[in-house]
Structures are given as structure tokens and as C-alpha cells.
Fold this protein.
Amino acid sequence: MEQSIKVYQINKDNYKFDGKTTDDDKITVIITSVYSKYKSKKKFNISEIPTYTVKGLKYFLFVHNFAEKETEWSSFLPPQLIDNVQFNIKNLTLLLFISDGISLFVVVGGKGYEVIVPFINHSFGLMVFSKVIDPNEDEIISINSRGLTGARSGISEQYRNEFKLIDYIRFGKVPVEIHLKLSKSISNEFFGFLQVKENERIKVHAGKSFKVKKNLNFEQLNELILQLGYILERESNDYLTTYIEIKDEKQLNERYRPLLVDAIYNDRMNVINQNMTKFKFDFCDPNKMTQFYEADYYILKEKQEKEDGSSEKYVKFDKVENRHEIYNKVIRRAVETINPMDFFNFRRYIQGVRICSYTDNKISTSSSFLYHFTSEFNPRGSSTSIFLVDTKWYILKQSFIDDLKFECVRAIKNHKLPSHIFYLPWDKSTIKREGEYNLQYNDLDNYIVFDTYTPDGIELCDVMYIDNEKLYLIHVKYGFDGALRELDNQISLSSQRLVEDLKSNKFEYLKKNYDGIKDKSQNLSKYTFQEFKDLFINKQITYVFAFTSQFDKDYLVEENIERYTSNIAKYSLIKCTKDMITNNFDLNICQIRHNLINSSNAT
């Protein structure tokens, strides 16, 4: 009998194992949590489960059967259909622990994954792969990654034959799962026992788990665990990404994890006073990105003590349909609930908030509020940016930082917008918000303001400028920082939607924009829809990536790149210039000056 096997590794440094030193103790903690999950009062003793030792590996087998329960279908279907039909479900949780004396592995069956998630090393499969990687020979079949920039936070890519790993590695992506074909040398050295022909290249899946793309019998599983032990003794290579994961728990707890709470705390009054939020981030469930984005609505819960004080429970305090409202709702609730100047209790409160998403009235995700953030940080005393992605912390390699600076300056100089097109200054002391700035162009000849109008959820542009030959679609953001990720998103989505609309010859998207703005814009009302549509057909379309400096002094980015520390901003700008080539549009870049007098270069 053979099985499709995924091997996970237990994170022995998990805080839930505090004071537990042996594998027996750690297994006891995990299985006790299983009983707690299923509300069983049974006390677990490690001696109760079967064990087996072979070739230096010790196996522990735990199997827990669910109680039978009736499915929801029984209450949905009419009685005429369900008479004499059994709807009971019975499932099991299987955990096969394997100890080699150094690592503790686990293979799961049934509902086993659900209960071991809090205890596993979520980078195990990728860690194994990083120790055997050959970027010039390994061939990618498919890869799932997390994007730090661009319109897609989660990216799934499939490749034709012979797409080498070296061709994938780039800044802006953190691999989450990889399906690939290993090199001949690694296949022969570590997985020869699975080869059915000479020099066969073994296919593997690496993510949270490590899986060989073959069904295994027990003897082959035993050999695989032995080989994984040997692989884990090797040095890791850093070819897999342009990031280095920070794994030192002391550094994480003392230096890096507090950065997130500090950023949120320092941003709280901007939220309360409805100022522009200075903390730039993406917000998504770390384990189920698609389900979170596609949810119908979100329930926000806070932790409260039960009346008898015996334990705590989560209580709903709000419901939203737009995920972009979650952050502000939580911060406002925190400030309403506690003294906004009390950092300790503010931190304690947001640590106890939980976000649950629902689709078709069924829960699809549920995670701590603080687990949802992806962001860039520039801590004092650090010479490089720190990135938080799906609860993991990364440092960007210095060589890529240097490349980003060079490419960013070159992109600005090569794609500069003519100075007469978007020329009004943005003095932050008098113009607080992007919308106010954009509206300055509303009554000027040849300008049409579309700011905040988003048919199909996509903004065509903030401001449109029309000249004799070109049509400029201008997108605007304040600050050369993480906000430029959103600017890249907006331009990318707008250009893709516009391409689709023009190719369809139906012009439905343009019609929605025209109908939505014509009564608000005197300049647009001068055009019939046919004339408006012809602008896009007859003129050369150019997107504009426009931003202003966040500093009090109006430093030009191209001449003061060292002063601008956001690597996400640099990469977003570079990426946007390259992406526009795909959609056959030109891109210009514009740094909006603070005032007309200061239009000369600041140094």
C-alpha cells in the first residue's frame, strides 16, 4: 500500500512548548490540544499510543475519531427526499510523529492538518529546498508567491518546460510554494531510492511541507525522513529570493515584532482625525488570501472575559463588507474602548482582535488582526528595510537595494513628464488630501478630474489631460513611500481594464466613466460620449505615475535617492514602467513640487 505523503516539521521553539524539553513532552502538548479542540475531557498519556523504532527513527501514532454528526443537508432537503437516508459524517484525525533525535516530523491524515497548524515550522519545505537548490538546473513547474508590490498580493504562475529557477528570482516576490524538478545531481544523491530509471529527476513540492511527487510505501517514507535529516545538516543557499528571513526568536521578539504595534499605535490619531494614514500596508489573511479577498463580509471580534472570569471569549463588535474599512474600524474601536495614550492597553486590545470573513454565510477565514499585515519598516539603527509578510520578517539583500536605487533614478530621468502638463504645486500645509489637490484641475482647460470614481472597482485615473496628440491618464499619490505600491496597483488595474474595453469594441467601461462624471465636470460635459470615446481611439494614451515628496524640504528623488528609504516605492516605480510595455501604453513619471518658487531642484 502506498500513500501520497506530505512531511511537516514541528517547530520545537514554539512558545507553547515552554518548559517542555523532550519529544514525548511536545507530542503530549499537541495531542492535549486536539482533545481541547474537540472538547474532550480525556487526559492524554504518551504511553497510550503505539510507537515503533526502525533505523534510528521513532514513530508515534495518534488517531482520534470524530463523533458522528448530521450534515446541514438533512435540514435543507424536504422530508420526502430524506426518509431512510443516513446523513451522518464520521472523520478522523491521524498524526504520525517521527523523531530522528534532532527534528520532530509529522505526517497527517484526515483532519490532522487543522490541529498541527499552530505547531509546525511554516517554512519547512522551502527550508529543505534552500539546502539542495541548484538555480541553474532546477526547473520550475509552478510557483505561488507573495508580492510586496503590484496589483497582485498573491501570485500563482505556471511555466513551460525548462524554465530555470535562476530566471524567476527577483525582488518583490516571496515564494510560498514551489513545484519543481530537481537537478540530476541532487536527485541522485538524496532521492536515488525513488528513481525508477538512471538519472531520473525527482519532482517535489516545497512549501510549509516537503513532498515528493510520488506515492510512497512505509519503507520509502522511512528512507525519506532519513534523507531529510541529512539535508537539514547542509548550509542553506540564498538563491531562492532576494530576501533573507529573520529567524532569531530573541531578535524577532525584542526588535522586529514590536515594529508593527508601534506603527499602528503611532498612526491611531491619523485614523481618529481622518487625516491621511501614514502607515502603509496590505491587509489580508496570511493563510487563505483568495478566500479573504473574495469574502462577502467580515465580522470583527474583540476578546472579552466571561462574567465568571474563568476564561475569555470573542465577541462581535462590528461588521463590514469592504475589507478596506477593517483597519480604521479596529483602531477607532480601540480608542473608544481604552485611553488612546495608554500604549500597553492599546497593544493588549489589538492583540485580542480577531477578523473573520464569510462567504455564502459560512466562515472562510479567521485570524488575529495583527496576522493580516504586510508592510515595510525602516527601524532606527538599521541600514536596510525590514519586510513583514504573512507574519514572517525579512531583510532585503544589500546588492538588490543598490540596484533599486540605480534603476529608480534611471527610470525617472528616462520617463519624465513634460513640465507644463501637471504643474500645480502641492503645499501640504494648505492642501491636506489627494482629492483636494486633484480638484484644482477641475475647471482648467483640457483637464477632466475623475478622482475617486471607480466603476467596476477600478479608477480610470485621477486627472485626465488632453493635448493635440496624446491623452494623459494621471494617477496621484502623496509621498515617495509605501503608498506607491497602491499607485502601481491603480495604474496596472486601470491599464488592464482599458485594454480589455478597447479590444471589446463595446466601450462599456468608458461609458460608465463618462456617465458617472459628465454631470460633475463642466469640461467633460463639452464632449458627447462618441467624442469622449474617440479620444481613446485616436490619441496616444500615456499613463502618468505622479507623486510628491513627503519631506518638509522638497527634495527631488532623482538627485536625493539616498534620502528616500522605501524600497517598495523604488521597486513599484520600476515595475510600473516595465508593466506598461505589456499593455502597449507609454508611462511618464512626475514629481509634484511643493510650490512654484521651489520648482528648481532641491538639494
